[in-house]
Design brief:
181 residues, 4-stranded mixed sheet, 51% helix, 16781_t:CDS:1
């Protein structure tokens, strides 16, 4: 009963919006303003863990058209691919720039088994200022976690950022990880 009343109100609101001439203007939004809006939308989505499919909902489109009829909100595919990829690329570039100047880094490695029985390794780089950067999250389920394997993965990370920049490596107490040190 409660849902039927909500739908009735929403349908009335949509009908009112469709007939409101101030809301049907097709004035195009400036491209830079649209890009800023999309960046803010991505930040909001990621910070709250909202599903990208929510943005294919017609009520969300109505909402954005009410705010600005010229703004075409990105659809799920655009959010999940090009916009998010661009945002991630910018973040990665900033991190790489900061790490290229950093000294006295610590490589932290943690491994665990996910609820789906996947063997996950996290490689985190910590700076002098105690800033932590997730370097990589890897699923190594298909590999045997020998000391040789673990050493190889540690060396790959160290070589990529310059082994002389690191002053410490910390790991969990897994025997193969300890042997790799």
């Amino acid at each position: 009963m409660e849902y039927a009343e909500d739908d009735r109100i929403l349908n009335e609101t949509s009908a009112i919006n469709e007939n409101d001439p101030s809301l049907t203007s097709e004035e195009a939004i400036d491209k830079s303003k649209e890009a800023r809006a999309n960046k803010s939308l991505i930040k909001w989505i990621v910070s709250l863990g909202i599903s990208f499919s929510a943005f294919d909902n017609p009520y969300f489109e109505d909402y954005t058209k009410i705010l600005n009829p010229g703004y075409n909100s990105p659809k799920r595919n655009a959010l999940a691919s090009s916009i998010l990829d661009a945002k991630a690329a910018n973040i990665i570039l900033k991190i790489e720039k900061e790490l290229s100047k950093a000294k006295n880094l610590t490589l932290c490695i943690d491994s665990w088994c996910s609820p789906l029985k996947h063997s996950i390794y996290a490689f985190v780089i910590v700076t002098n200022e105690r800033k932590q950067y997730v370097y990589a999250l890897r699923d190594f389920s298909k590999f045997s976690h020998t000391a040789k394997f673990n050493a190889k993965k540690i060396i790959e990370v160290l070589k990529n950022d310059g082994p002389k920049k690191f002053i410490a490596i910390t790991t969990d107490a897994e025997s193969a990880m300890m042997a790799a040190k």
